[in-house]
Amino acid sequence: MRAFPRALFGRRARRRWIHLILGGALAMPYVFVGQLVVGPAVDARYVFQDLFLQLASFAVGLPLAAVTALFPLTRPLESGAVRWLCGVAPDLLAYGPARSRAAKGRTAAWFTLHLGLGGIISGMSLALPPFAVFLILLPALARFHADAVDLPASLDHTWVYALAPAVGVASLLALAACAAGCGALLARWAPALLGPAPEDRLAAAERRAADLAVRNRLARELHDSVGHALSAVTLQASAARRVLDSDPEFVREALAAIEDTTRRTVGELDAVLGVLRDGDTPGTAPAPTLDADLGGLLRRTRAGGLRVRCELGVDPAALPPLLSREAYRIVQEGLSNALRHGGPGDGADHGVALRVARAGDRLEITVENPLTGSAPCRPGGGHGLRGIADRARLLGGTSEAGPAGGMWRLRVRLPMKDPA
Fold first, then answer.
1. 409: β partners
2. What span, in angstroms and rounded, lies between the C-alpha atoms of 369 and 339?
3. pTM
4. Where exactly are the transmembrane stretches of this chain (predicted)?
5. How far apart are CA 394 and CA 403, in angstroms?
6. Those residues with Cβ within 8 angstroms of residue 313's Cβ, 6 or more apart along the chain or in another chain
7. Does residue 286 contact residue 328 with C-beta atoms inside 8 Å?
8. Rounded mean pLDDT of 349-375?
9. Which of 109-118, 129-138, 334-343, 356-365 shows the highest mean pLDDT?
10. Rounded to an integer, what distance in angstroms lies between the CA atom of residue 192 and that of residue 97?
């Protein structure tokens, strides 16, 4: 029982009614233009005194509305109105200008339909309520003012006064039903006429993929630079604290390494955040390379008490820039894992072996550290191995990590040439 009144007078029905009335208001200028055409054509001075001429003017104005619907702002404005007033899901509508011929045709069809149904419902909304109120009040008016109502002789009967209120209420219900029906019809057709075309969906998917790629790249850069810096600084400070009284020279080296690490990390962080601020492509953010900073990376890692043996079988300066940059991040994350899971004590006893060499047409990076280390220095670990795998995959390479002979081994193979 409640569904019927809600369908006619509920919040959604009222908002759709407003949407139709807005369509009728938009139709009025076109009706006036149609009046200028119809009036001289039939030699009528006052077109709005004749219902037939009004409808003719309305019919002449609708094609003009279809033409003006080709303006770029029509679809965004109509989609916004449909979203808020008709209750259509946002992802079913397109909010950009119509580009293709088919999209423009659908937009023109929608605009014409909106103005056509809106003009009809607006006219009914102006005419029916006063007439219905008059019919509802007719018995009372006839009772107290018998001379005020001049009915034709054929209608001057008591049953007319009894039936008039029912007809008035029925007129209002019919108006509400027509408005609800037209509003539901527009809401049903809106996705087909205002929805995104296949090319719009493809463009949106490409934008989402590009945004996701940027976010993933930034996440990897932040994890590798900031995560490594925090791990290194934590262990450097821990090592310095343990030998504060016995080895002042080591403490000075550790503090210098902490200063250098934090300074470099702040610079890298500012560069990565600049991508977010300026909207640059991911590759434009400057990053260290093997050629520029491998020695500094090893020095800062060793300052935390971790003994690192490095074997270089390739000239870092001969590597392509992109490969050198990604290889640096992979080495950085491999050493960071050794810092977190090995710790300075194990590193001093067993050492960490780093090997960067050429294997055929590929660059091979191997990092080995003992499995007998202490617990990670930060609970829960991180996403370093996943980030390494992502970097290798994007370059067309492979990565593998796991225990091997009492050691934890990370091995990454990357093509020696930049991907096209």
1. 368, 402
2. 9
3. 0.55
4. 20-39, 51-73, 109-138, 158-186
5. 25
6. 355, 356, 357, 358
7. no
8. 81
9. 109-118
10. 16
CA distance 20 to 1: 26
CB under 8 Å to 189, separation ≥6 — which residues?
110, 113
Name residue 392's amino acid. Answer: A
Residue 222 backbone dihedrals phi, psi, to 5 degrees: -65, -45
**286 band by pLDDT with thresholds 50, 70 and 90:** low
How large is the average pLDDT for residues 323-348?
A: 73
- Neighbouring CB atoms inside 10 A of 172's CB total 17
Count the neighbouring beta carbons within 10 Å of the beta carbon of residue 12. 16
CB 361 within 8 A of CB 334: no
Closest of 134, 118, 140 to residue 171, by C-alpha? 134
**Above pLDDT 70, what percent of the chain?**
81
Rounded to the nearest 10°, the torsion over CA 203, 207, 213, 218 is 170
3-state SS, the chain, equals: CCHHHHHHHCHHHHHHHHHHHHHHHHHHHHHHHHHHHHHHHHCCCCHHHCHHHHHHHHHHHHHHHHHHCCCCCHHHHHHHHHHHHCCCCHHHCCCCCCCCHHHHHHHHHHHHHHHHHHHHHHHHHHHHHHHHHHHHHHHHHHHHCCCCCCCCHHHCCHHHHHHHHHHHHHHHHHHHHHHHHHHHHHHHHHHHHHCCCHHHHHHHHHHHHHHHHHHHHHHHHHHHHHHHHHHHHHHHHHHHHHCCCCCHHHHHHHHHHHHHHHHHHHHHHHHHHHHHHHCCCHHHCCCCCHHHHHHHHHHHHHCCCCCEEEEEECCHHHCCHHHHHHHHHHHHHHHHHHHHHHHHHHHHHHCEEEEEEEECCEEEEEEEEECCCCCCCCCCCCCHHHHHHHHHHHCCCEEEEEEECCEEEEEEEEECCCCC
Give CA–CA dist 81/88, Å, rounded. 10
Domains of the chain by start residue, with CATH: 3-196 (no CATH), 214-415 (3.30.565.10)
Contact call for residues 261 and 234 (beta carbons, < 8 A): no
> What burial letters (b/e) apply to 392-408, b meaning 16+ CB within 10 Å?
beebebebebeeeeeeb
Phi and psi at 50, nearest 5°, equal -125, 120
The rounded distance, in Å, linking the Cα atoms of 293 and 322 is 14
Query: What tokens appear for 286 in the block?
Result: 């400057």
Q: How many angstroms separate the CA atoms of 291 and 331, rounded? A: 12
